[in-house]
Here is the input.
Amino acid sequence: MDSDTYNSYDIPIENMRRLTKAKVPFSFSYVKEDGSIKVVKNALLRKMAKTERDSMGPYKLQYQCIDTGQKRSCYICALLSFNGTKILLQDERTQA
Here is the structure.
C-alpha cells in the first residue's frame, strides 16, 4: 500500500470498526447507485442489516451520519476513500 492509497477494502473497514468501537467519527466517500459521489464527513458504523430484511446486507456498510443523524448504507465495492485516503483496488491480472 502506498502511503496515499489503500489497495483493498480490508484495512479501511477494519479501521472504521475500530474507530466506531472507540466512538470516534471518521469520513469516507463512495459512489451512489445513481453514479454521483457521496462524501460523509462524520460517520459511525451500525450493525449489519439482517439478511431476512436485506439480502444484500453482507455487501453493504451500514452507517449513521453524525451531523444529520440519518441512518444510511452503501455498497462496500462502491467505497472511494476513507479519512482522506483513496481506495484503489489492484487487478491481480495486471500485477507482474
User: Anything to note?
Assistant: The longest helix spans residues 10-21. The chain has one domain: 5-89.
